[in-house]
Amino acid sequence: MTDTIVETVRTRMPARVVELKGVTKEYPGGVTALRGVGLTVMEGELLGIVGPSGSGKSTLLHIVGTLDRPTAGTVAIAGHDVSKLSDRALSALRSRHIGFVFQSFHLVPGISARDNVAEGLLYSGLPRGERRRRAAEALGRVGLGDRVHHKPHELSGGQKQRVAIARAVVGEPDLLLADEPTGALDTASGEAVMELLHDLNADGATIAVITHDHEIAASLPRQVRIRDGEVVADVWNTGRRPR
Ligand SMILES: Nc1ncnc2c1ncn2[C@@H]1O[C@H](COP(=O)(O)OP(=O)(O)OP(=O)(O)O)[C@@H](O)[C@H]1O
Ligand SMILES: [Mg+2]
């Protein structure tokens, strides 16, 4: 009986996907891009990171994504203390838990949309045929089921970004990080990309998205505002914390 209660409590408790404490980042040359940032992201959240140019948003996303290490402070991703991991263990953690989407897509030219998406499973240990099958499935999910054999130069900007999102989520990461995913897109394509992120979130993905666009930011459940390397506001648009 007691065990059942404990189990129920445990399954209801959302996991901390990201936990940053006192994170500072000094770049060589003397720029302090982050100053003592604390940030906790729970499983299933969709949050926006907003702030002026140069305020430290991309630096923060790189640190959350373990692409870079902080100068001081601690970073835990899915419960793993990043500072205790070797570079190799870190890239394993990254490939298993984190998906990235960048403003400029970063697709591999000359290979199909399907093979670009399959790159997201390169370190999964799955055989190539299975990687391709899942890639085609992920493309269907982002509405590009009829473009699997198209190469990046044969796709529109919005379609390229959807391929990049499919690549980021094909491995079912715990966390999807997007740095200005609509920055290079026209309004309609940007809206389609945001709708896709909302859908993925509704299906359970935890997503952090950097945006300059106030309208987009306002459409997200949570906004973390950054200025001069500090979190100056952390706002739930519903007016209350979801959990
Ligand atoms: N590799 C680097 N080496 C030195 N300084 C850097 C480096 N990357 C960023 N910076 C500096 O750190 C600060 C924060 O940069 P960051 O790229 O995080 O800003 P941002 O908020 O993403 O800006 P934007 O909205 O323009 O993309 C800036 O002052 C920038 O010049
Ligand atoms: Mg940036």
TrEMBL record:
Pfam families: ABC_tran (PF00005). The keyword Transport applies. PROSITE patterns: ABC_TRANSPORTER_1, ABC_TRANSPORTER_2. InterPro entries: AAA+_ATPase, ABC_transporter-like_ATP-bd, ABC_transporter-like_CS, ABC_transpr_LolD-like, MacB-like_ATP-bd, P-loop_NTPase. One of its GO terms (molecular function) is ATP binding. Residues 18-241 form the ABC transporter domain. This is ABC transporter ATP-binding protein.
